[in-house]
From TrEMBL:
Domain of life: Bacteria
Protein name: Type III secretion system inner rod subunit SctI
NCBIfam families to which the protein is assigned, alphabetical: T3SS_SctI
InterPro entries per the UniProt record, alphabetical: T3SS_SctI-like
Organism: Chromobacterium aquaticum
């Protein structure tokens, strides 16, 4: 499983790597931020739903290996949500600083 942040970083790198794009393909900073945030939100939401579905299967909860996997997935989910929150806050702060200057 590729972390959601790595997928987003790969997608962003693919967009940035082509510096020969013509001007009609320009995307505003707001649109890029909204697109990146929405893609991450969807991916994180899907991971949360997958974790909750596993928790609803009573037979699996008696297996320590499955519980360890769920704990690891929950930890990764928490880290990804925290990172998205921090990156969004920092990006908004940077954009506000640029707009003030």
């Amino acid at each position: 499983m590729i972390p959601i942040a790595a997928q987003s970083l790969d997608a962003l790198t693919a967009q940035v790597s082509d510096i020969t794009r013509s001007e009609h393909n320009l995307v505003s900073l707001d649109d890029r931020l909204i697109q990146a945030f929405s893609q991450n939100a969807v991916g994180v939401g899907m991971e949360k739903d997958a974790i909750l579905q596993r928790l609803e299967q009573p037979g699996l909860l008696s297996n320590p290996a499955v519980l360890m996997e769920l704990q690891q997935r929950t930890s990764n989910y928490n880290l990804e949500v925290s990172m998205i929150s921090t990156l969004t806050r920092k990006t908004v702060g940077a954009v506000e600083s640029l707009l003030r200057s």
